[in-house]
Design brief:
heterodimer; A: about 575 residues; alpha+beta; Ubiquitin-like (UB roll); 3 domains; seven-stranded mixed sheet; six-stranded mixed sheet; 13 helices; about 20% helix; elongated; B: about 180 residues; two-stranded antiparallel sheet; 6 helices; 7 strands; binds iron/sulfur cluster; binds FE2/S2 (inorganic) cluster
Chain lengths: ~575, ~180
Amino acid sequence: MSTAVKLEAKSVAAPVEMMTVNVNGRSVSVPKLMPDHNGKPVPTTMLQACQVAGVEVPHYCYHPKLPIAGNCRMCLVEFGLPMMGADRKPILNEDGSPKIAKQVLPYDPSQPRGAIACATPISPGMEIYADSIATQQMREGVLESLLINHPLDCPICDQAGECKLQEYSVEHGQATSRFVEEKVHKPKRVDLGPRIVLDDERCILCSRCVRFTRDIVGDDALGFVNRGSYNTLTHFPGKPFDNNYTLNTVDLCPVGALTSKDFRFQMRVWFLKETKSVCTSCATGCNILMGSREGKIHRYEPRQNDAVNSCWMCDEGRLNYKWIGREDRLKTVMIRRGNAPQVVGKWPIALAEISARLNAAIPGSVAIIGSSRQTTEELWLLAKIAKKLGAKTDTKVREGEADKLLVNADRNPNSTGARLTGFLTEKAGNNIRAIVEGLKVGSIKTLLVFGEDITTLGISSALLDTVDCLIVSEILPNATTAKANYLLPGCAHAEKRGTLINIKGRVQKFMKAVEQPGEARPEWEFLNELAANIAGHHRFVSIEGLFNAMAQDIQPLNGLTWSSLGDQGVTIAI
Amino acid sequence: MIVKRAELSFLERLYLPTLLGGLQVTAKHFFRKKVTMQYPEQKWTVPAGYRGAPYLVKDQVGRTKCVSCQLCEFVCPPKAIRITPPGSSNGLDSGVVEKSPLEFDIDMLRCIFCGFCQEVCPEEAIFLMKDYSLTGTSRSEMIYNKDKLLALGGVHQDKIQKWKRKAQEALHQGVTP
Ligand code: SF4
Ligand code: SF4
Ligand code: SF4
Ligand code: SF4
Ligand code: FES
């Protein structure tokens, strides 16, 4: 939930106009303008200048991807400005440096006047004292005020461990509470919508959630009611907080006020191993972190990538992980000879027999139905096999409705990859009719299926019975796997590594989070073996080597290497 | 220099006085306060502050005090503790203490009686008690589950009762706790 938010210090206009300010006694040169949440250049703020200088200013309501609200006051800092004479010229010290006036309260000049760093633009010669005693006291004061009515639910609060209130209290707060009065109590366990539960007592009223849903999603669903310490976050009466992006507010919420019904009380966050991955629910390919513990995935969270998904992801993609740990996952190789039932087999035997059969097949008698959910490497190897066998190929088309923010109409994560690798020679879905015909008249005798239930593509179970040799690689059992002569258990993307190419040509790699069940193997591993046996392909021992070879082979990927993809991927011309 | 070995006297050669001297020591010990105990029939009473086996406790109104925060699971050096959190099945009608463990296992073969779990617990729900000799006939028998730990732990007289206080405060203000 507390995804570290990085700030890109690049301005839109070139050349960048710079300004020099002083942070903690050190001069730093910062761009005069920096992008706001929309990417529009606006005057740089003190907080951004501090970030450029590498100085952390604690903040709650500020978020680089949201409009600035300036309501939490956590970012207060003491600052000074160059003194101006009556002639509007700077007053100089004896050594010729400009004289700086620390800003003080107009009605009590003995007291420093802080300014909120998140919303105060810098000016030339400004001095920011981000760790002065006065600044520290302001932070202490703000935290004390935030904690006055805070329930201190940490032992039962899902945010504990990644809570900014905990972190700042430790770093900047006081050791004990001076508050002896009764705390104000607010509603707990408020059912905001189908995926969100709100605990109003924990809310620190930063309005991040309100701004996100209003300004980023365009669903003005949340707001504050009542005043003072009774100020309470709520949704509009009768209107549940329900859009496809609600769970992002759980990430945004700096405390444990907004919690995800799905992740609620599942696991403490400090046990979760975070694995960099990519969402596979649509062609946008949002960058994600998978949180897993001991082989069980507990949650997905968006990972910032300004070229793809900013800091967000949709709820549908986020919750699409439960199938990975399903009990009925395919775990063993199954072999069926003739009309006998499937029996448990071994990998080497299955692969050797498949290789022999495919090598003996007459050109044109093989068809391959792949999936645009497969990785680019797998599709490339399949394309090599298809080319050697003169096989007809196709994939399943998955279309849905697109929205304005992230969700793409193409619900396959790697349609671009299927095209670029040469696996799809025509538009997806165009060849399927010919394949069905071929199966009916018997010109296609061997059918390879990867990751799709082809009975949903107009190939009936009865027709599958007539196929000489049906080779299926799948993750979960379905009507197609039941008919397979060779059933090869594969891996979910969380269980292997690989790359996906999104709709805009962003090549992104994903990492392995959990172990695969039973004898399941990553598809690229056994496709690699089949490609070597059938197409005389080089045997790769690592995904890195495989990707690098593929990048040399596919023109738009030329020059890329596995390591050059980095964590955020590379956009290619498609 | 040559040391001349002294001749033994008649009494010394007689041997009996030394024997009687030894018997006298034995006889004295017969009437002294005993320093050993008949273990295992007789059990040692451990001193206050002794760190025996960790057990879970209930409070005086019978609520399992553990809220499944999993801090003890995290801090336990030999990873003897294994907690299954309640999961999202915990409804919105759970009352003020929203969480409690679905399952709570301590592997007593692993536990090193360090007391970290007791020290870290924010709810005063786990205590190292007086039991020091735990036996079983299998490894699985030595993994104590929630029910066993609670039965062994008994009741803790909670002076603070923070959740009860919170609930009362909220009710007083007209808010459902
Ligand atoms: S919001 Fe933070 S400080 Fe408040 S109860 Fe939750 S973890 Fe504790
Ligand atoms: S619920 Fe969270 S994000 Fe929303 S205003 Fe409260 S603290 Fe901020
Ligand atoms: S006493 Fe130490 S070793 Fe034993 S359960 Fe507690 S923390 Fe673990
Ligand atoms: S630290 Fe205490 S409250 Fe938390 S899980 Fe352990 S026994 Fe339960
Ligand atoms: S971060 Fe500046 S006021 Fe909240």
